[in-house]
Amino acid sequence: MPRCLRELSHVELRPRLHATQTPCVTGRFSTRITHETRVGLEAQAAMSGQSISQVAEQMIALGLATKREREQSSPTQALAFLVGNLADGCSALFGDKTFSWNTDAFAFDALAFALRLLLERLRPSESALSRYLREGKDVDELDREMFASPESWAKHQFYQLWDELMGVQHSLLVELPTEEEWTTNIKKIASSPVNKVIFKKGDVRKIFQYAFILEKVRRDLNLKTRPRGNQPEGGSQ
Hints:
Layout: H1 3-6, E1 9-13, E2 29-33, H2 35-48, H3 52-71, H4 75-90, E3 92-94, E4 97-99, H5 105-122, H6 128-135, H7 141-146, H8 150-165, H9 179-191, H10 201-221
Antiparallel strand pairs: 1-2, 3-4
């Protein structure tokens, strides 16, 4: 038997169900994996408290979702890649010294100029939004005030994001709710007749995942949150 086959391990996947669930698919799926992959699955299973088959199923689902995501058109992800590439490129390396865009003013200014050049090249020649703001029947005066110019809409979006980063708009605990907390608290809030926003369980997890991301951004960029009372009147600075 070839060595590569001798080094393969066997993993069997079974449907994972809760007591109240019925399987949509029955049967088993088995495959052979390398020893390194098996070790990785075992380590992940030990950390998460799940079985190897459960971890393997999750990794397969994640891989399929990633593949679908890569096949879909996403201009925003494409822009994020270009911005990241320019951010790394505008940082400078001399010997063992690195001058990064987020710690050096020269590198930062270089990145800002490069981003301006990039956005100028990517700018569309026409705006369907401008025509819709003039002619749309469901556009009210408040909409027209916020969209009075690209600059006014940009300020609105910037301050909304910046306030979130500074901890002004939301003060979420970076901790996922337990099943009991979800049942006793979140569902009561969502079912309230005065609450116009209907939350699903997955929505709540997305909110907390977003809080995780914001906290990581603060750490990476060395941003400090400020309580609402410390914000200057008239908006953020």
